[in-house]
Amino acid sequence: MAADLPAGPTGAHGHGREPWLTLGPAPLLWRGAGLAGLAAALGAAGVRAVRASLLLLPAGLVLGAGAVLAAWAAAIHITGGERFDDGGCD
């Protein structure tokens, strides 16, 4: 398919611009909402641990890292999963 299209800007390769935000199917939205809730809970637990005692700083950092990763996963799920733009454009 890509061989018969002329070279040029992205639109010339048969790819249009995607919308700024696309939502995924319902199962991915539910998983994303769950992961967002997990991220909020982990972040709050990390902050509470550090406020309770500075001796809990390592645990707070681990909880904070888990919150960041869960938020990242939630964003991927809510927007419809991973998409790679490497198919057919050699």
Could you name the key traits of this structure?
single chain; mainly alpha; 90 residues
Overall shape: it is elongated
- Helix/strand/pairing category: mainly alpha
Q: Please outline the major beta sheet.
A: none
Question: What gyration radius follows from the Cα positions, in whole Å?
Answer: 20 Å
The span between the termini is 11 Å
The low-confidence parts are: none
Mean pLDDT: 81
Q: Give the helix level as a range of percent.
A: 40-55%
Question: What order do the helices and strands follow?
Answer: HH
Q: Helix segment count?
A: 2
How many E-type strands? 0
Strand content: under 5%
Characterization of this structure:
This protein is mainly α and 90 residues long. It has a domain of 39 residues. Helices cover 54% and strands 0% of the residues. It contains two helices and no strands. Helix 1 runs antiparallel to helix 2. The radius of gyration is 20 Å and the shape is elongated. The termini are close together. The model has no long low-confidence stretch (mean pLDDT 81).
Brief synopsis:
With 90 residues, the protein is mainly alpha-helical. The chain has helices at 26-52, 57-78.
Question: What is the topological layout?
Answer:
Elements lengths: L25 H27 L4 H22 L12
Helix pairs in contact: 1-2
